From TrEMBL, chain A:
PANTHER family: BRANCHED-CHAIN AMINO ACID TRANSPORT PERMEASE PROTEIN LIVM-RELATED (PTHR30482:SF1), HIGH-AFFINITY BRANCHED-CHAIN AMINO ACID TRANSPORT SYSTEM PERMEASE (PTHR30482). GO terms for cellular component: plasma membrane. Coiled coil: none annotated. Keywords: Cell membrane, Membrane, Transmembrane, Transmembrane helix. Its main location: membrane. The chain crosses the membrane at residues 32-53, 65-83, 113-134, 141-160, 190-209, 277-302, 322-347. It is found in: Cell membrane. GO terms for molecular function: branched-chain amino acid transmembrane transporter activity. It comes from Thermobifida fusca TM51. Residues 1-24 are annotated as: Disordered. The lineage of its organism: Bacteria, Bacillati, Actinomycetota, Actinomycetes, Streptosporangiales. This is ABC transporter permease. Residues 1-10 have a biased composition (Basic and acidic residues). It is a multi-pass membrane protein.
TrEMBL record, chain B:
Residues 10-256 form the ABC transporter domain. Keywords: ATP-binding, Nucleotide-binding, Transport. InterPro entries: AAA+_ATPase (IPR003593), ABC_AA/LPS_Transport (IPR051120), ABC_transporter-like_ATP-bd (IPR003439), BCA_ABC_TP_C (IPR032823), P-loop_NTPase (IPR027417). SUPFAM superfamilies: P-loop containing nucleoside triphosphate hydrolases. This is ABC-type branched-chain amino acid transport systems ATPase component. One of its GO terms (cellular component) is plasma membrane. The keyword rRNA processing does not apply. One of its GO terms (molecular function) is ATP hydrolysis activity. Coiled coil: none annotated. It comes from the Bacteria.
Length: 357, 264
């Protein structure tokens, strides 16, 4: 069957050769991995340069944009590419953050890279369990099941409070910049670099798999399960694979957060986080990994803008605390109404218009 | 390709499917020879689609066996068929709407890929070779079907006749040995229909084709063998001339006994 795979000229008994003979240039395929690695390297250099230009608080925010982007990008693979939905991705961040905290507290000699790998493994294992259980669920049922996860899992921290620290969570200390760089690089700066490095490595994997055979399989399943199955794609297994990768990304994002803040508390992985991740993805654009970038930017800086707006209006704290949420929600509605494909959709249409000029 | 071995490509024997008390298929059997076109006809509700679904593993029969190339298909699932060499087109086309025409066809070529999960994740191993070979293969088939110039369009932007060709290209790109076509002619214009007949004949040079179809002109034109179903039972089977002459077939379609006087 594969014998004619490399056949260059069509067979002689061709019927209906209406198109011009094959002088047409074949679509060129660049080495995907190298392209993505180069782009990631550029992005990392950009982030390193940026951290020298801004203050310590801004450096924290840059790091936060990084790990939120990873969590949203994982969700993009699940929602945008494979057409499943998860309202519980905060739960996988919870798993990653607590896995990091427990490792640091109980095995302080384990190097950071090993911790990161460990959290991905733990997140993927959790993803296998949840994904296998939810593989037969569609749409609202899957949303419901993952919602239960987001609500239930952080409660474990309260239930097993002697191990997981209850509502105060776990506090631990992680080394910042290496001593050789003391005076040149601040701890915040170093942590931002480490987080962006981790995030970009994960994004290279996500971008590569999305461009290739697995990404195509996922999109085929999203568009038509019956036709995808007839094309030889194992539908159930592929959906679980997407869920597992997505969970691994969420867990790694949680590990990055724990590394940055030195804490893991149940309140930071509330249902609101899970919903914000999904909202940010929709805001940023469902179709592309760029959507995750815009979504993460929006999540961090719209919240900030909302807080500043509340301060400006001199609102009481009970009102002011909710202003960022209202601000974010309103903007989400406006943007999605104007551009259904989110910020990325709007930008790519804009660039299309500019190029045609 | 070498002349056919005497053994059939697929054999369906004694297949019975009941939905509740309703017998959708009872004791249905048919034999598909390699490099031939088998037509499956019958009035609406006769069980044609159910038989397709049994063959593709969507519906499990209560009784009966299906043998493909001498190997029994038992508890098979739809996604295993592509690798065995069985492809199918759908009545409703079922194209991937948010993927380009090229990507639609590359998905059809997926069984030819060699990369495994680690390679698909990291871009190493056979990833790059798969991308190149599957894309080339898909482009070659698009050119065969005269739709290479719309490779980067989305299916919904194309006229229906072209969409049908995309669906057929997707089914054929992995070079199956058995092609199941569910009403390929529905909604086609006269010229497209002639194209389709030519394509089906061309396919039958290298593979077995099973056709569920209502357009009798097309069926009588391209089929080597016709099986007529009515109320879940095979009421007639044979070459087109035999089926056309069978009074039971006319009765099934027209619902009344054939006029005796017509023959005299």
């Amino acid at each position: 069957m594969t014998s004619s795979l490399r056949r260059d000229d069509p067979p002689t008994d061709v019927v209906a050769p209406k198109a011009a003979p094959s002088t047409r240039p074949r679509p060129r395929i660049r080495p995907v991995l190298l392209t993505h690695l180069a782009a990631a390297l550029l992005a990392l250099l950009g982030v390193v340069a940026l951290t020298f230009l801004v203050g310590p608080i801004e450096q924290l925010r840059i790091a936060k944009v990084g790990y939120l982007m990873l969590a949203i990008a994982g969700l993009q693979l699940l929602v945008g590419a494979s057409g499943q939905i998860s309202l519980g991705h905060g739960a996988f961040m919870f798993i990653g953050a607590y896995a990091t905290a427990l490792t640091v507290l109980h095995a302080p000699m384990v190097p950071l890279a090993a911790i990161m790998v460990l959290t991905v493994v733990v997140g993927c294992l959790a993803g296998i369990v949840v994904g296998a259980a939810t593989a037969r669920l569609h749409g609202p049922y899957l949303a419901g099941a993952t919602l239960a996860l987001a609500v239930g899992l952080p409660a474990l921290a309260l239930y097993f409070s002697d191990i997981l620290g209850g509502s105060n969570g776990l506090l631990f200390k992680m080394r910042g910049a290496p001593p050789e760089l003391a005076g040149l690089v601040t701890d915040n700066q170093w942590k931002a670099w480490v987080i962006w490095f981790t995030v970009l490595v994960a994004l290279v994997v996500l971008a590569t798999l999305s461009r290739g055979r697995l990404g195509r399989r996922l999109r085929a399943i999203r568009d038509d399960e019956a036709a995808a199955a007839m094309a030889g794609i194992p539908v159930g297994r592929t959906k679980v694979t997407a869920f597992v990768i997505s969970a691994g990304c969420g867990s790694l994002a949680g590990a990055c957060e724990a590394y940055l803040l030195g804490t893991a508390t149940p309140s930071s992985f509330s249902l609101a986080l899970s919903l914000s991740l999904l909202a940010a993805l929709v805001l940023g654009g469902l179709g592309s990994l760029w959507g995750a970038f815009w979504g993460a930017l929006a999540l961090v800086y719209l919240e900030l803008a909302g807080k500043e707006l509340a301060d400006l209006l001199g609102l009481s704290s009970s009102v002011a605390d909710n202003v960022p949420l209202v601000f974010f929600g309103t903007l989400l509605i406006v943007i999605v109404m104007a551009w259904p494909m989110g910020i990325h959709g709007a930008l790519s249409r804009l660039s299309g218009v500019v190029r045609r000029r | 390709m070498a002349p056919t071995a005497p053994s059939p490509l697929m054999e369906v024997e004694g297949v019975t499917v009941r939905f509740g008390g309703l017998a959708a298929l009872s004791d249905v059997g048919l034999t598909i020879a390699p490099q031939s076109v088998t037509g499956l006809i019958g009035p609406n509700g006769a069980g044609k689609t159910t038989l397709f679904n049994v063959i593709t593993g969507v519906v499990r029969p209560q009784r009966g066996t299906i043998t493909f190339k001498g190997r029994p298909l038992r508890n098979h699932r739809p996604h295993q068929l592509a690798r065995l060499g069985i492809a199918r087109t759908f009545q409703g086309l079922n194209l991937f709407e948010r993927m380009t025409v090229l990507d639609n066809v590359i998905v059809g070529a997926d069984p030819l890929g060699r990369s495994r999960l680690p390679g698909m994740l990291t871009g190493l191993g056979s990833y790059q070779r798969d991308e190149r070979e599957l894309t080339d293969r898909a482009m070659a088939v698009l050119e065969e079907f005269g739709i290479a110039d719309v490779a980067h369009a989305y299916p919904s932007t194309l006229p229906y006749g072209l969409q049908k060709r995309v669906a057929l290209a997707r089914a054929l790109v992995a070079e199956p040995e058995l092609l199941l076509m569910d009403e390929p002619a529905s909604g086609l214009s006269g010229a497209d229909m002639a194209d389709l007949a030519a394509t089906i004949r061309r396919c039958s040079q290298t593979m077995g084709v099973v056709l569920v179809e209502h357009h009798m002109d097309l069926v009588m034109d391209v089929c080597d063998h016709i099986v007529v179903l009515n109320f879940g039972q095979v009421i007639c089977s044979g070459p087109p001339s035999v089926v056309q002459a069978d009074p039971a077939v006319a009765e099934a379609y027209l619902g009344t006994p054939v006029q005796e006087a017509a023959g005299e």
